[in-house]
Amino acid sequence: MLKNLYTKIAGDPGDKTVKEARGIVEEQINPLEPELEKLSDAELRAKTDEFKAHLADAAAQPRQNLAELREQLNTAADAEDRRLIEEQLKQADQALVDAERDALDEILPEAFACVREASRRTIGLRHFDVQMIGGMVLHKGQVAEMKTGEGKTLVATLPLYLNALAGRGAHLVTVNDYLARRDAQWMGPIFHALGLSVGVLQQGEQKALLFDPSVKAATRELDYLRTCTRQEAYRADITYGTNSEFGFDYLRDNMAWRLEERVQRELYYAIVDEVDNILIDAADHFRSRRRSVGRVLSARGTRAKARAGRLHHRPAHTRHHADRSRLRPRRAIARQAALQSRPP
């Protein structure tokens, strides 16, 4: 009730976000379309280099400050000095991220327009204005709700491309191996036309793929995909995979004995497809199963210990007989129930 009253007075925050994003689409992105249509494929590809150069210039000073602090940390001997430098490192790292985010926001209109043009040229799909709005919402780290058939896969290409420009990797987390592979095959030509690489994680500790338009496989499911190492898939500009693969790789990396055995790099940006399923339904299901399995294991463990204790104190020639006798009452009860349920 109070929420409805607040919404009536202050307005829906979601409507404000959509209205702001719609203004950017209509005033900044759409006017760029005629100009980009005149570019050659090579000139469109060169836009990626321009964006990366802009990001590098914006992050140059924060990155230098971070490097200097890391060098000071390596040479510091006093524990208190190290603690202070570590705090400064956290602030410097956050300052670098903020500088990159500000630079990404500056190039967002032109970057989104380039993705739209690349999509139209490669796979024949042009992003609608509402899809542009969805891409901006995802770039801000918010939840974008879209119905089946509204083009979520195409929407994701916009923020994936934009955030991959930072060079730290962008991940798309989906629900199964088929969707990860299909989306990479389907959207791969867009990223390839813009000069970005695409990796795909598949089930299995060492199984991974890279998008390569020159590959023609024996089966349609593997067209334009070639096998690669797990490290290569993670070092691609954009990586598709399931929540379980990303999660287990993270756990394995934390148990690795050597740095070269780790496969992931820093976790920078990710889009979670079917976020309600992965973060709510699947998480609750896993938690419920964990509780139930824990109870079963505890009960089985208790019964096993009690039974082992009883058998340990019995003569050896009677243990097998005593073990089999435990099943007889159950069989007798089952036969009795069957006889009672038989019609007269």
Brief characterization of the structure:
The chain is of the alpha/beta class and 344 residues long. It contains 13 helices and 6 strands.
Molecular structure report:
It is a single chain. The termini are far apart. This protein has helices at residues 2-10, 13-29, 33-37, 41-75, 79-122, 129-139, 152-164, 177-193, 230-234, 243-254, 275-312, 316-325, 328-341; strands at 170-174, 198-201, 208-211, 225-228, 238-242, 269-272. It has 13 helices and six strands. The protein has 344 residues and is of the alpha/beta class. Mean pLDDT is 83; it is low at 289-335. Strand 2 and strand 3 form a beta hairpin. The chain is globular, with a radius of gyration of 28 Å.
Mean pLDDT over the full residue set: 83
* Contiguous helical run count: 13
Order of helices and strands: HHHHHHHEHEEEHEHEHHH
What is the 3D form?
globular
- Biggest sheet details: 6 strands, mixed
Regions with pLDDT < 50 over 5+ consecutive residues? 289-335
Strand order of the largest sheet: 4-3-2-5-1-6
Distance between the termini: 62 Å
Radius of gyration: 28 Å
Strand content: 5-15%
Helix content: 55-70%
